[in-house]
Amino acid sequence: MKYKKIAVISYHTCPLSDSEGEETGGLNVYVLELCKQLAKIGYIIDIFTRSQDRANQRIVNVQDNLRVIHIVAGKKEKIEKKKLILYIPEFLTNMYNFMNKSKVTYDLVYSHYYLSGIIGLQIKEKYKIPLFVTFHTLALMKNLVARDESEREDMKRIEYEILFTKKADKIIATSTQDAQYLTSLYRCPKNKISVVTPGVDLKIFSPKDKSKAKQAVDLDKDCKLILYVGRIEQLKAIDVLLYAIKILKVNNPKMRLCLWILGGIVRKRNEKNHKELKRLEQLSKSLNIVTEVKFIERKHQNELPNYYNASEIVVLPSHYESFGIVALEGMACGIPVIVADTAGVAGLFDKRNSLLVTSPNNPLMLSEKIKHLLTDKNEYQEVRSEVLEKVKKLSWENIAEKFVKIIEN
User: Fold this and answer.
1) What is the DSSP letter of 6?
2) Which of 296, 314, 312, 315 is nearest to 360 (CA)?
3) Distances (CA, A) of 308 to 68, 151, 248, 276, 336
4) Statement: 210-393 belongs to CATH 3.40.50.11690
5) Which CATH number fits domain 5-200+395-408: 2.60.120.10, 3.40.50.2000, 3.40.50.1820, 3.30.70.260?
6) What average pLDDT does the structure give for the chain?
7) Where are the alpha helices (DSSP H) in 198-270?
8) What are 78-129's pLDDT values in tens digits?
9) Where are the domains of the chain?
10) 296 by DSSP, 3-state: which?
11) C-alpha to C-alpha distances, 399 to 7, 174, 316, nearest whole angstrom
12) Which residues are paired to 170 by β-bridges?
């Protein structure tokens, strides 16, 4: 192995967030699961993240060859994401101190998100080692679909992302769609980009008996569940999904429908998400679908399979999504997943596929897609078989093999 010892930087969010009781998302899953598989192969990996709770262990041995190291940066444990850039110098100082005391060196540094890229670039230049960067989301694309100023990214982030496309040795894109944005919007050389999509744990996420799954999540056996899983943000276009459910209800009054919004609802910690949650709750009242809609606190990974298997369809309507891991999780459970073609995961499907919505702002089209799958049993079974077949190739073991080829080349 040419680059056996890897320092992974996940500065703004800890990949162990799910087990530490914090909000988690696709980035956390991507970092942790990819690193687990690389460690199994024999790579020695330390994931460095900012300490967000002093009660957590400083060093967590996840498995052989894999540690998560919490580095203190900032007196406050909970800091707004856009202000975290101010504490990067302290993070670097404490990280260097840890490396010196532990007498550890690395062959490669791999940064996730632009804040981690700032750290990774300084490590690259200090120790003369290669730098890999995965952005996970692109600021220019987020600004394109931003609904208000709170969702817009500043020019500083865009400048850093452009800098990384020049200075990093390899940019790892999570979808072919984001790879295209990188070449066209950021003018990143094509030979510097490699696509490594997220994977899915096929041991956790697999088809289960629907009636038992419904019982496990306390769902009426006769109710057809439409499921959304993810954070509560305007970017996710959950309001479009609410409109689609209203249209379905009006046009199909005899159909027993329910929509569950399962996501990172942490009311006390994130004012922006709390504001969006209140807006969505008010919208469901205005549309007179309160009895059909249920907002559910986020669940740990091992609880999610019951929710997926209890549902008829999983919907990912986002205005922009660099990939969309929840789509893979639903597919692995044999559940049809309707996605907007603005999501990276849409690249897995043919453009004319019944699972694609060509505009995230079209609730009429979305409601028609949902109705078609709910009423056409033959089509539903065909789609179910299709998603199960596609997801077989996307185990984390296979994803890690792709990453290894990139490293070794």
Assistant:
1) E
2) 315
3) 29, 29, 21, 24, 10
4) no
5) 3.40.50.2000
6) 92
7) 210-216, 238-251
8) 888 889 999 999 999 999 999 999 999 999 999 999 999 999 999 999 999 9
9) 5-200+395-408, 210-393
10) strand
11) 19, 11, 22
12) 132
String of DSSP letters for 59-82? EEEEETTEEEEEE--SS-SS--GG
* Interval 260-294: pLDDT, tens: 999 865 444 455 567 889 999 999 999 999 999 99
d(CA 169, CA 268): 40
pLDDT (tens digit, 9 = 90+) per residue, 116-166?
999 999 999 999 999 999 999 999 999 998 888 888 999 999 999 999 999
Task: Give me the amino acid identity at 320.
Answer: Y
User: What CA–CA distances, in Å, run from 340 to 99, 159, 294, 303, 349?
Assistant: 44, 28, 22, 25, 11
Residues 6 or more apart in contact with residue 187 via CB below 8 angstroms = 162, 165
State how far the Cα of 269 lies from the Cα of 279, in Å rounded to an integer: 17
Token pair in block for residue 391: 């997801």
pTM reported for the whole predicted model:
0.92
Q: Output the DSSP codes for 251-267.
A: H-TTS-EEEEEEE---T
Q: Kindly state the tokens that stand for 278.
A: 């209140």
What pairing do the DSSP bridges indicate for beta strands 59-63 and 66-71?
antiparallel
